[in-house]
Write a structure and sequence with these properties.
Strand order of the largest sheet: 1-2
Order of helices and strands: HHHEEHHHHHHHHHHHHHHHH
Structural class: mainly alpha
Distance between the termini: 21 Å
Strand content: under 5%
Radius of gyration: 22 Å
Shape: globular
């Protein structure tokens, strides 16, 4: 099939930048992978293929599982001191930022239903170098968010243990270096448990995730019902004590809680009907998650004066104790949080492995990441390597630094997706689309502007991490990826 409106993959350097060394270099860096080739290679890995076994409900649960819990159960306690009662507004702003990008994700997921998510979308529209940078930041986004959420899991596990058997894991084994501990053992354990489920197969792990999502929604609704009795109108005044700057800073931090709505797009090669179901799953999951976030945040700041939020990762359990004076409700919430955060670890870890699968199939990272086990239909070696890396990261790095580093990587990837929608509309206007962003290119441009604004709200340390990660990624690409890219051999058969 011809790539209407776009340059063919073997377009000469003379056409795109002159025939000299500079033109050839530009041609190499800007080469794109045709949409048809991306779709044709879908599911194919080294020695086997991924299995199409996920329906729309399971895809929606994957997105909710990857999203719901991180902001409410883990980061809320850090965001409230930044914004006060206006933390609810910060959630809305972060949700709007996610919404504009979600529209772009929905269009591209239905048009290019492959495993690589925004990495693959940029490969088809903006060229290999930009795709590599996007994929490199997706590694930061998914891998580091797994570690960050796993750290929060340990906090709630201690709450649960204290309320049931009266024993907690010692600080030395439940906190990372720099926060009073030597090694965060619970964080490592939850990542390894998620790895075990993923190795069993996509359909099996999706079933486990669906059960866990139901439990986490139930836990949050329980919190709202109980904490509602403790709401005091005076706790909402002044509504914005730290001004709009505080709301903006909190919104940038809370954007971490929306990481994951795009997780369904990483399942493009394991969905039964990806063109129809992926856009629906992305939009439905974002609607459900945003509604719950705003509801829980509003109840939380109404039940506890905002100055009493201490930044604890187990903030909701503490509110339950204050409101009821009884430990039983906090224990039930802690149990729900343990399950909820485990679900986030499971689904985000899934997304990370599928992105590396796509990058490996393109030759940009080692082949071991695209080896598929013939019995389970999963990238087994990929899953083990990524899980061990994330587990050790979770055991050694404090949560706050992880969350901010993840936010900037996510915002960067989302910004590229908004640009990719505009480019693909111009280069391939006649391509069939099961979902179209309304008012394009206006809404994608608004999404891009929101992402850039929230990136600017992050602190200098986070930007320093961003710069170092970019430099490391470019070094890996020019030292490894550019020479091993499968686009170097246009005649190589798909799925080799």
């Amino acid at each position: 099939m011809l790539d209407h409106g776009a340059a063919p993959p073997d377009e000469s350097a003379d056409d795109r930048g002159g025939g000299g060394p500079a033109g050839r270099a530009a041609s190499l860096l800007l080469r794109r992978k045709p949409v048809e080739q991306l779709v044709a290679e879908g599911g194919q890995g080294q020695g086997g293929s991924l299995r199409r076994s996920l329906g729309m409900w399971q895809l929606t649960m994957i997105s909710i599982g990857a999203t719901l819990g991180t902001g409410i159960f883990v980061v809320l306690g850090e965001a409230v001191p930044e914004a006060g009662p206006a933390v609810t507004l910060a959630f809305v702003i972060a949700g709007l930022t996610a919404l504009f990008s979600a529209l772009s994700y929905a269009e591209l997921a239905g048009t290019i239903p492959v495993a690589g998510s925004s990495y693959s979308y940029t490969y088809a529209t903006l060229g290999e170098l930009v795709a590599w940078i996007c994929g490199w930041y997706l590694i930061l986004e998914y891998g580091v968010s797994v570690a960050a959420v796993a750290v929060g899991w340990g906090e709630y596990l201690n709450e649960l243990l204290a309320g049931t058997i009266g024993v907690t894991i010692p600080d030395a084994l439940s906190a990372p270096p720099g926060e009073g501990g030597l090694f965060n053992l619970p964080a490592l354990i939850v990542v390894l448990l998620a790895m075990a489920f993923l190795l069993g197969g996509a359909r099996e792990s999706a079933r486990v995730n669906t059960v866990m999502v139901a439990i986490k929604i139930g836990a949050l609704l329980l919190f709202c019902a109980v904490a509602f009795t403790g709401i005091r109108a005076g706790n909402y005044a002044p509504f914005m004590p730290l001004g709009m700057a505080g709301v903006s800073a909190a919104g940038a931090t809370l954007f971490f809680s929306y990481i994951g709505f795009d997780a369904a797009s990483t399942a493009g090669e394991e969905a039964k009907n990806p063109r129809r179901d992926l856009p629906r799953a992305i939009m439905l999951s974002l609607l459900i998650v945003t509604t719950l976030y705003v509801l829980v945040a509003a109840v939380a700041v109404g039940a506890l004066p905002w100055r009493q939020f201490t930044g604890s990762e187990a903030a909701l359990a503490g509110i339950m104790k204050v409101v009821t004076g009884q430990d039983i409700w906090a224990v039930l919430l802690a149990a729900g949080a343990v399950v909820a955060i485990a679900s986030v670890v499971l689904t985000v870890l899934y997304g990370q492995t599928r992105i590396l699968f796509a990058m490996s199939r393109d030759g940009l990272v080692p082949k071991v990441f695209s080896k598929v086990h013939p019995r389970t239909g999963t990238p087994r070696a990929n899953t083990v390597i990524v899980s061990l890396f994330c587990g050790l990261l979770a055991a050694a790095i404090p949560l706050g630094q992880l969350a901010d580093a993840t936010s900037i990587g996510t915002l960067f990837a989302f910004a590229l997706v908004n640009v990719a929608v505009i480019v693909l509309r111009r280069t391939r206007p006649d391509m069939p689309r099961t979902f179209r962003v309304p008012l394009s290119p206006l809404l994608p441009l608004v999404g891009l502007a929101f992402c850039l604004w929230m990136m600017a709200s992050l602190d200098a340390v986070t930007w320093t991490v961003f710069g170092f990660w970019m430099a490391a990624g470019l070094a890996v690409y020019f030292g490894y990826g550019i020479r091993r890219s499968r686009l170097n051999d246009a005649t190589e058969p798909a799925g080799r």
